[in-house]
Design brief:
The complex is a heterodimer of chains A (191) and B (180). Chain A has 191 residues and is mostly beta strands. Chain A has helices at 2-20, 86-93; strands at 26-28, 36-43, 47-53, 56-61, 71-77, 81-82, 105-116, 119-128, 131-146, 152-163, 179-190. Chain A has a single domain (22-190), classed as Lipocalin, CATH 2.40.128. An eight-stranded antiparallel beta barrel of chain A has the order 1-4-5-7-8-9-10-11. Chain A is globular. Chain B has five helices and two strands. The chains are: A mainly beta (191), B mainly alpha (180).
Chain lengths: 191, 180
């Protein structure tokens, strides 16, 4: 009997833990690379430099009937930074910039979503280079529906701007390059 | 004069020794300096270009030097040298050669990790062999840095040895690499 009680308690605790945790119904399709985390920063003020993070993972929830309950969690492998130039990548991953040997992970955890027509504003905490700061992402709904292989998919794009100094990146790249724009494309497969 | 004998270093060996020594020590200073330059420094791009060009040149010189060493007699150690001194000096020489080549290879692996070639003074282009491992530029970069400091430490040992022979033992070890 004692054993049954313990099992019952364990089951209850497990259920409680699961309901408390993040209940996502979409997995971001990083496997098929139908999602990307890109960054853009002006180069000297004359053009834009583009790069991306090749490895990340995440899940999100989105209910068309209650979009205000939408939420997302993403973890980025900062060591996978790629700007198509090895020497620059090495520098961007070093102490001056992202310091990936010390901070190999960056995370975004949403706190709220304010839906608007065809999108909304997603608020949450971004942790980058060990600094956690609230950010806002302007979200655009792209579409949702059945895919040709028996699954159901939903996708968004998002954009936000980060000031480098806010995340302890103090390198002076010039007046035109104090902020970086993140351009996000996310496609999720329903579980 | 040009070639080595059993007793003397020839001009070619001396030139290889001092020229590679000069370039290697310059490369060490240049390397430490260039990574600290600010983005708007006029040398921000020039210094790494110079570092890579000189790096390729010194590795080429070291290869020629190695060939020259093999096809030439190596002057015998001075009779006054102790056995332990001979072994220690010889070991340090081998380590110096190995370190220089390893530093050259890791440097090459940093700059060529994305498929780009290394331009030697914009005259010769050394092609990339591609990426061998994930995050090659980071790993090769770290090894390059560690080995460079190790090399400078061994250069210091080599120098202390030479100075010891010159000032304490008062023998011809250092002098015969300079003239005679």
């Amino acid at each position: 009997m004692k054993l049954f009680k313990q099992l019952g308690l364990a089951a209850f605790l497990t259920t409680a833990a699961f309901t408390n945790s993040f209940a996502a119904d979409y997995v971001i399709d990083t496997e098929g690379a139908h999602a990307s985390i890109n960054f853009e920063i002006p180069h000297l003020g004359y053009s834009m430099l583009l790069g991306r993070f090749n490895h990340f993972s995440g899940e999100f929830s989105y209910d068309e009937k209650a979009p205000e309950k939408a939420s997302i969690e993403v973890e980025i492998d900062t060591t996978s930074l790629d700007s198509n130039h090895a020497e620059r990548d090495k520098h961007l991953k070093a102490k001056d910039f992202l310091y990936v040997s010390k901070y190999p992970k960056s995370t975004f955890i949403s706190k709220s979503f304010e839906p608007s027509e065809n999108g909304g504003v997603l608020k949450g905490d971004l942790t980058l280079k060990g600094v956690t700061k609230p950010i806002e992402i302007a979200v655009t709904n792209i579409g949702a529906g059945d895919d040709p292989w028996g699954g159901y998919r939903r996708g968004f794009s998002g954009e936000t701007q980060l000031t480098l100094k806010d995340f302890n990146i103090d390198v002076d790249l010039g007046a035109a390059s104090r902020a970086v724009t993140l351009k996000l494309h996310v496609e999720g497969i329903r579980k | 004069m040009l070639k080595n004998t059993q007793e003397h270093w020839g001009l070619v060996s001396k030139a290889f020794h001092w020229l590679t020594a000069l370039i290697i020590i310059s490369l060490f200073g240049l390397g430490l300096w260039m990574v600290e330059l600010s983005y708007y420094d006029p040398w921000y791009r020039k210094a790494p270009d110079l570092h890579k060009s000189l790096g390729i040149i010194v590795i080429s010189l070291m290869l020629l030097r190695l060939i020259w060493r093999v096809i030439n007699p190596t002057p015998k150690s001075l009779a006054t040298h102790q056995t332990w001194e001979r072994y220690l000096a010889h070991t340090v020489h081998i380590i110096l050669y190995l370190l220089v080549f390893s530093i050259g290879i890791t440097g090459y692996l940093i700059s060529t990790a994305d498929g780009r070639a290394i331009e030697v003074f914009n005259i010769i282009s050394i092609p990339s062999l591609g990426m061998f491992i994930e995050r090659q530029e980071d790993i090769a970069g770290w090894v390059h840095w560690v080995l460079a400091w190790t090399l400078i430490t061994f250069v210091g040992l080599h120098l202390i040895g030479a100075l010891k022979h010159h000032f304490i033992d008062k023998d011809a070890t250092l002098v015969r690499m300079l003239h005679k």
